[in-house]
Every structure is written in C-alpha cells, then in structure tokens.
Amino acid sequence: MSEPLTIAAGRVVSIHYKLTLDDGSVVDSSAGGEPLDYLHGTQSIVVGLERALEGRTIGERFDVAVSPEDGYGLPDPNAVQDVPRRVFPPDANLRVGMSFQARDENQNPIMGTIRKMVDDQITVDFNHPLAGRRLHFAIEVSGVREATAQERSHGHVHGHGHDH
After folding, report:
1. For a disulfide at 64, which of 36, 48, 52, 129, Cβ 3.0-4.6 Å?
2. DSSP per residue, 87-131
3. Which residues, listed in sequence order, are joined to residue 103 by a DSSP beta bridge?
4. Over the stretch 85-139, which tens digit does the pLDDT of each residue have?
5. Tens of pLDDT along 43-76?
6. Where in the chain are the domains?
7. What is the Cα 117 distance to its own chain's centre?
C-alpha cells in the first residue's frame, strides 16, 4: 500500500471548514455542502491557513487560529475614503453597513462597505471585511491529489463546469 499524499505545492486539496471569529460567530462553513478545492501553493487561500495545511494528509482534522497578518491583513487607513453621493447610481438605496462592488483604477473588482453617510458625503471602507480579525478555522482534509498540468499552468483547480 502506498503512502497517502501529503499536502504540498502543486497539489489539489479538498477541505471541509468552519470559519469563526474570536466571539464564536460563524463567518463561513462548508457544512452540508461541497468541500473547498484549491491548488496548494498559489495563495488562493489565506497564507496562515495554507501554512497550517502543509504536510497534512486525508482524514486529518485540526483547528488553527490565523493572525490578521497571516489572514486578510491589518486595516489600511488609506482604504477608507470619503466620496460624493453622485458617484453612486441616483436610484441606489444606500445605507450604512451596505457592501457593494466597485472597480479600482485598473478596472479590477473591489468590495466596499459604507461606513458613514453625512449629507452628500459617503465614507466607504475598501478594506476586506475580515481585515484586522483573528480567524479560527476548524478543518477536515477530505482530499489530496496531484494537479493536472493544465491546473498548474492556470494556477487554479478545474472541474465543476470549468471550461478553459
């Protein structure tokens, strides 16, 4: 019988997970659904979790706390901006706490959250909603396999209707 594959760069990993914050609130979970598949070593998951998965095998279960620096980073004060109301569509029903997608100067999609509204000024936070938060993951490794040449060249997992 051959040794089980360990998680390493260039391998496709499948995990079930539950992500909670310090207060125990659940942010995300794969419970009752499909596992998360990702290509290890491509930074497609937060670096602290990827590091904790390195060398593990199918069937392992573990908990890991990921610091903000190894998760979504520390909040960047420069990512909080005051913008005029006119930059939003006139019919947009804006409210504090609302998240929306915008485009950065290179036309890449970015998420923003409205933090404050005073008269015609809207304070928008473009930090990731989990920036500055410690992330608690409960993990079960459900699969490890070698990535295909195409997956390695594209830098992500294929399947589930993926067509390029």
Report:
1. 52
2. GS-TT----TT-EEEEE-TTS-EEEEEEEEEETTEEEEE-S-TTT
3. 109
4. 999 999 999 999 999 998 888 998 889 999 999 999 999 999 999 999 999 999 9
5. 899 999 999 999 999 999 999 999 999 999 999 9
6. 11-72+131-154, 77-125
7. 28
Find where tokens 């598949």 sit. 37
- The H or E element spanning position 114 is strand 109-118
CATH architecture of 77-125: Beta Barrel (2.40)
Helices (H), the chain: 47-53, 149-154
Q: Are 113 and 164 in contact (CB under 8 A)?
A: no
Given a contact cutoff of 8 angstroms between Cβ atoms, the answer to whether 109 and 71 are in contact is no
The dihedral built from the CA positions of residue 85, 86, 88 and 93, taken in this order, carries a sign that is: positive
Q: How many residues does the chain have?
A: 164
User: What is the pTM assigned to this prediction?
Assistant: 0.82
The residue whose two tokens read 């594959």 is: 5
Lookup: tokens for 102: 């915008």
CATH class of 11-72+131-154: alpha beta
